[in-house]
Specification:
6 helices, single chain
Length: 162
C-alpha cells in the first residue's frame, strides 16, 4: 500500500527534477529574450535588429496591411510597428505608402536592397528550421507529441500573461 511516507522520497526526487527543468526553461527563455534585445544583424553595412527582421518577414509573407494588424501578429504595440517601419524606411530597406482612401491601410514594399536582405535572413531562418527538423526527426513520435503539448501549454501560459 502506498502512503505519503513511502511516496515522499519519490516526490522529493520528482520536485528536484522538475525544479531543474523549470530553471532550464527559464534560462532558455532568458537567452531568447537577450538575443532578441541585443543581437543585431548586419547586411551590407546596415544594422538590422530582430524586431525589424520580424517585421520584414511579416511584410514578405504579406500577412497584414496596416500597423494595427502587424502589431497584433507580432504581439507588440502599433507605435512599435510604426517606429520600426520608419527605421526600415530610413535604412532604405522598404518603402511605405499610405492608402489615400483608407486611413490605416498602407502598402509596404521592399527596395532592391531590402529584397536582398530579407532573402538572406529567410535563408538563415530556413537553415535553423532544418536543424530543428533534423533533431525532431530523430525522436519517436510520442516524444514529439510531448514536446508539442508542452510548447502549446507554454505558449498559452505566456499569452495569458500579456
Amino acid at each position: 500500500m502506498l502512503t505519503v511516507q513511502s511516496l515522499a522520497p519519490k516526490l522529493k526526487n520528482m520536485e528536484i527534477k522538475n525544479e531543474s527543468l523549470v530553471y532550464q526553461i527559464e534560462r532558455v527563455i532568458n537567452k531568447f529574450i537577450f538575443l532578441e534585445k541585443k543581437r543585431k544583424f548586419s547586411f551590407k553595412g546596415i544594422d538590422l535588429y530582430p524586431s525589424e527582421i520580424h517585421l520584414m518577414f511579416l511584410v514578405k509573407e504579406k500577412q497584414a496591411t496596416n500597423a494595427t494588424k502587424m502589431a497584433e501578429k507580432l504581439g507588440v504595440t502599433k507605435g512599435a510597428v510604426s517606429q520600426a517601419l520608419s527605421r526600415l524606411e530610413k535604412k532604405k530597406i522598404l518603402i511605405k505608402t499610405k492608402d489615400p482612401y483608407a486611413k490605416n491601410e498602407l502598402t509596404v514594399s521592399f527596395t532592391p536592397l531590402g529584397e536582398q536582405a530579407v532573402e538572406e535572413f529567410w535563408e538563415m531562418k530556413n537553415t535553423l528550421h532544418k536543424q530543428y527538423d533534423y533533431y525532431l526527426a530523430t525522436l519517436p513520435d510520442n516524444e514529439c507529441d510531448i514536446i508539442q503539448r508542452f510548447l502549446t501549454y507554454l505558449e498559452e501560459l505566456l499569452s495569458s500573461l500579456q
